[in-house]
Amino acid sequence: MNLDLHLKKVSFDFSVKNIPLHSEDLYTKTLIRRTETFVKNLRWRTFFFLNPQIDLAEKETYGLNSTKPPPIIPELKEFESDPIRLIEIIKFQNPRNNFQLQQRKTINSIKKKDNHLYVPADKTNNYYRIRPEDYEKLKNKPLQKEYKKSNRATTANISMGDKKVTQNLGLADRINVTAEREAFIALKDHKENFYNNPTCRLINPCETEIGKISKQILERINTNIRRQTKYNQWTKTRDVIHWFENITNKKQQSFIIFDICDFYPSITKDLLEEALDFASLHTSITGEERNIILHTKNSTLYSNNEPWQKRQQHSTSQWEALTGQKHANW
Q1: DSSP label at 182?
Q2: Would you say which domain of life the source belongs to (predicted)?
């Protein structure tokens, strides 16, 4: 599909990696939030230091922090008041650095005068200026291909599935409700014929924290498979370099360059189950771990405040089957 779009590559007088100065309000709110986190962690550490008799039953938490409030520690009362007083007496002054002033001026000019959007590229540092209506056209292309419109009942069922997983793991107090965040795109300007046929990568920031658990399970599975099969699967650049340096007769070897289109969207439920079946031949995967991985594929995307779900996503009835007798003997 060829879209009639108005794309313009833009350049700035500074690197977009440079962090601009934030507003006083945002800085103060961030400082308060970070201070609260520091005090909370300090209370927990002090509580267990003062109460060594408390037996902490070790359980896998997958790096998820507890949302329980820590007990008040009388010994820390005076100390905790000091950071609060520091926040109250902070004074701001206008920046005198010419670079920061120019950066702020450029950003304010874009916000006030420009009704266009500035969209980043996927694999380069480029930015493109695009009209809002053209942005929606670009976003809708992969959205309608990979997703279908959903409803609040479906999202509620997915949330119930998340709750079941966390309850079974004893981590219900460590999982927050998934925030509804709008999907966005990154332009694939590294593709051939980009200006005549622009394409983009659809990014869904609305991922549940169950994904963090699934990621660690998959990392363990992949590590065991690599150890058992001796297959090459690199996770670090230095591993690739080490492999390349040990290739003999490099002049007689050839490299194949290829690009997999829509790699992640093409991973269907059936393909995922086949991959897990293969992995089960080389490492142990419990029924619970398998359920978590499959459930993570159930996700909701939000576009213009409307929920969408993957076309390959299994239904609620299928999820009930997955969590029931289907994997009881695995």
Answers
A1: B
A2: Eukaryota
